[in-house]
Amino acid sequence: MGIAEIKTEKVEGWNRPPVITPDGEGDLLEVAMGPHHPSTHGVFRMDVALDGERVIRLKPVFGYLHRNHEKIAEGAAYLASMPYTDRLDYFCSLTNNWAYALAVEKLAGQAVPERAEYIRVILAELTRVQNHASSIGFLIQEMGASGTPLMYAFREREKILDLFESLTGSRMMCNYMRFGGCRVDVSVAWLDATRKVVAGLPQFVDEFEALLSTNEILMARCQAVGVLRPELAVNAGVSGPMLRASGVNYDIRKVDHYGVYDRFNFRVPLGDHGDIYDRYMVRVLEMRESIRILEQALKDIPAGPIMDPKAKIRGFRPKAGEAYGRIEAPKGELGFYLISDGGPNPYRYRVRPPSLINLTILEDMCLGQNVADVVLIFGSVDIVLGEVDR
Amino acid sequence: MKTIEEIKAAIEAGVPGAEVEIVLNSGPSAQHSLRLTPSSTVAVATFLRDDSELAFDFLSNVTGVDWPDKEIAEKVKVTREVIKTVEGVEKKVQETVEETRKRTEPGYLEAVYHLYSVERKHGPLVIRMRTGNRSDQVDLPSLTPVWRAAEFQEREVFDLYGIVFKGHPDLRRLLMWEGFKDYPMRKDYAEPDDYEYEPTAHDEVLQRAQEHRAAGAAQRARD
Question: What do you get for the CA distance between the two ends of chain B, in Å?
Fold first, then answer.
C-alpha cells in the first residue's frame, strides 16, 4: 500500500501531526526509505512523500524483524525467557535483563541482596555509557563523518564489552541477572579492571566533546532540526534522553527509586530546545553522570551474598497476580508487564519497548524538513530494531 | 499517590455516570486496577489526564490480554426423588447425589493501560476494559485522542489480538503484514503447518495443520 492510499480517519481532538501543504504545482514524489538503507539501523522502512526536498508525509513501516517474542515467552518458563531478553535491544542486554528481573521480582515479591543491587547498577551504567557513545557515533556517521567518531566510540565500547565478557562469558548476550540476584559474583580482579576502565572514561568523553560539540558542521546540521515540543513528548509517551532533551525532568532512576539509585549523587541533564543537538548533548552529559555513579558504586560496593537465599530457581511459580516493572534503560522506559496464573509460565508477558514508542512522533519531527534531515532525526531517536519489532 | 479507592471516588465525582469497578490484585506487587465500561472510558481518561491532582499525563504501556472461553466443572449436590425397593415395597425416597455439571464461562479480550504522571511523579494506575466476546463484539473505544502514546500500541493490540479500537485515526496492522488473517497472540492461534508454502494459516492450510497435529498427537499416544 502506497503512502498516498493511507487515509487518516477524522478524529476529534487527537494530537495529530501537522498537515503540510506542498508549495507550487506538480505531483509528490513517493520514496520508500528502507527496508535496506544504510541509515535505518536494520530492516525498517519509512514511506516518505516529498515535495522537492521537503517532507510532506512520512509513515514508518515495522515488522521486518518480528518474531513474536511475547508469544514465545508465554510458552516458556519464567527463567527461560531471560536469555531471550538479551536479543531485544542487543546493545543493552544487561538493562533488558534487569528490567525483566525487576518485573518478576515484583510479581513474586522477591528481595535482592545489596551487593547484587550494586553489581546491577555498575553493569547498567556501563551499558548506558557504551550505548550512548555508540549511538552518538552512529548519528555522526549518518551526518557524513564516515567512521572516525564511531571508531572512537567503539574503541571505548570494546573495553566495556571485554569487562562484560570476562564477567558473564558473553560480550553482547550476557544473560546475567537472575530473579533475586545475579548469576555469578564479581571478583576483586574484575572490580579493579572496571575501576581502571572507568578512570579512563572521563578523558574519552572530553576527547569526544572536543572533536564534536563545537564542530561547525554538526551544529549547522543539528541545531533547530527535528524539534520536539515537551507537551507533545509527554503526551506521546516518549521517554529517556529524547524526553529529557525536550526539557522534561523525568528520569525513572530518580522517580521510582528502584535498585539503590537513591544512594548515589547524580544529576539529570535536560535540554532547552528539543532539537537533535540537545539530544546529542543530553547523551554526552548522561555519560558523564553515569561515570559519576560508577565511581561511587565501585567505591561503596559491599560484601555479601549475590542471590536471595530464599529465591527458588527450579520449580519457580509465582502466585497468581500481575505486575508492571520498569527501569530507565539507555533508550528510555523499558517495562515488562506480567500476569501469572500460578503456573510455571507467564500467562501474559508484555515488553514495553522504548524504541517503538519513541518512534510515534517521528512523523511530527520530520514534516516540513529536508529529506536529508530525516536520516539525522531518525538517528537521533536511537533505536534498535530488535526491540522495535520484537 | 491517592489510593485506588480514592481515585475511584474522584472519578465518580468528576465524571457523572461513569461506571468504575476496582479489580484487586492478590499478588505481592499489589498493583490494583480499575475496570471501566467502554461507553464512558474516553470521558474518564480525559478526566484522569486533566484533573490537577491526578494528572496522569503519561500513558506508558498499552496491551491486550486474551481470556478464552473457560469450561468450569462444578460438583453440585442435587436432591431428587428416587423410587427404591426397600424390603419388597416400592417407596419414594429423597436422595442426595453429587453431580458434575459443566458450564462455559464466555471468554473476552481485555485492553490494559498503564498510566503515570510526569507532572506529579506518581503511578502506575492500571485501567482495563473488556470486550463483549472474542468473535463479533470486539470493539473498544480508542484512547489515542487522549494520549498519543497509544497510537502504535493500539495498532499492535489490533494486530495481535484483534481488538478494534473505534476512533483510532489510523488502525492498520503494525507488525504482521497486510492480508494476514489471524491474530497470533490469541491463546487458540494455530501456527501454520508449512511456513515455506503459506505463511498464514487459514482455510485448507489451517485444516491440514490441524489434521497433521492431531495425527502427530495420536502417534505419540500410541508410542
Answer: 59
